[in-house]
Design a protein that fits this description.
The protein is built from 15 helices and no strands. By secondary structure, the protein is mainly α. It folds into 2 domains: 290 residues, no CATH class; 70 residues, no CATH class.
Length: 396
């Protein structure tokens, strides 16, 4: 195999830092101590918010907690499912989630939202504050509180948080943590209506409302915002794109603001509220789609550079590498199969190719036992042996 392709693989792995480990404990990093301080402060504040209800409303808290745990499990499965190329270390994902669940809502957003609400009421009156406080406060305060989280992660793991896709996925977990704590707060508020006389009914109604609203909520908002931060700051793997960054940071603020101001904007009209709701959903998912479209070319190029030597050694074909680099390409490649069995085989080959990518990243491009096993698995799926004149690649 050519020296050029092996060198390109090494550069791609160095640039993306795919396969790098994350070490949470960093005593010499001031950001590590800031993280601990703010998360601890948020945890204490959260305990102060929930502990008064632990007695009489204990059942409601338990139900809300179980529902929240299930929701977190489902969302986590989905986010990890779409993390295709090189999954973020679990410790880094948990670090993001904890910031979103503690520091962002309780140490920052709750206090700032209350302060801003008081200012709106003081300067513009109670009616204005009731109508517009949420829409003019939460989008700015909460997106900033969560957005600080991605900056913290950049400082804690500068080699791991490098691409817009990293921002999208880690931002989703930041938002998921925030959403989990916020859902618990709303669930408690629902249970305590009417002095808790019908706490289960109020809780169920609140949970149902939150499950619906969570479709377009903090994970999506923070994913967009965090990807925007990556573009705005720039990294070794992503040149600075200021306009893209600002656009992605502004989009969730707009979606969040419209969502929280829907009653005021609609003037009480259910028809107009429905139109705004649909429009907000469409805009949010369009922005997310655009974010992935923008991020795809660089991610796909990195995939190609890492897997290119496998074409020369006969493990993969150029068409398979192209298909492994994106959802659309994968779909077209699989659909091109001659029959159902062939389509299934193609899908398995692409899944094995991504496993090989992860093993190459973990092994820094060297022929580790996992890399060799991944190549053998591709050969087994293909149903034939490698050409006898080929040999495994070895990175310098």
């Amino acid at each position: 195999m050519s020296t050029d392709t092996v060198s390109a693989r090494s550069r791609a792995l160095e640039t993306t830092a795919w396969g790098e480990k994350f070490h949470f404990v960093q005593p010499r990093n001031i950001v590590f101590w800031i993280y601990l301080w703010l998360c601890a402060a948020g945890l204490v504040k959260g305990w102060q918010e929930f502990s008064p209800f632990a007695g009489y409303f204990g059942r409601a808290l338990l139900i809300a907690g179980v529902v929240g745990a299930v929701s977190v499990a489902v969302w986590t499965w989905w986010f990890r499912h779409i993390d295709r190329y090189e999954r973020q270390p679990l410790a880094l994902v948990i670090t993001a989630f904890v910031w979103g669940a503690t520091a962002a809502p309780f140490a920052i957003a709750l206090t700032a939202n209350g302060a801003m609400g008081s200012l709106y009421a003081k300067f513009f009156g109670q009616v204005f504050a009731q109508d517009w406080q949420a829409g003019l406060t939460a989008p700015f305060v909460e997106e900033t509180a969560k957005g600080v989280g991605i900056v913290v992660l950049l400082a804690l793991a500068p080699r791991l948080v490098r691409t817009p896709v990293d921002g999208l996925l880690l931002g989703a977990f930041l938002g998921l943590g925030f959403q989990t704590s916020e859902d618990l707060l709303y669930s408690v508020a629902g249970a305590t209506q009417g002095f808790g006389a019908h706490q289960t009914d109020g809780l169920i109604e609140s949970i149902g409302t939150r499950i619906f609203s969570d479709i377009v909520s903090h994970p999506l908002f923070t994913a967009l915002f965090s990807a925007g931060v990556i573009y705005l700051i720039g990294t070794p793997a992503q040149p600075r794109r200021i306009v893209r960054g600002l656009a992605l940071m502004l989009a969730p603020v707009m979606v969040h603001g419209i969502w929280d101001s829907m009653v005021a904007l609609s003037g009480g009209s259910q028809v107009l509220a429905g139109v705004l709701l649909i429009g907000d959903f469409v805009f949010a998912f369009t922005a997310l789609w655009i974010a992935f479209v923008w991020a795809h070319p660089r991610e796909s190029q990195f995939v190609r550079e890492v897997l290119a030597p496998e074409v020369e050694s006969g493990v993969l074909t150029d068409e398979e590498i192209t298909a492994a680099g994106g959802w659309r390409q994968r779909r077209h490649y699989v659909k091109a199969g001659t029959d159902r069995a062939d389509r299934r085989r193609r899908g398995h080959i692409l899944a094995a190719a991504l496993d090989l990518l992860a093993d190459l990243a973990a092994g820094k491009g060297h022929d580790t036992p996992d890399v060799i096993a991944a190549r053998e698995e591709i050969t087994r799926i293909r149903g034939g042996a490698l050409h006898s004149d080929t040999h495994p690649s070895t990175a310098p």
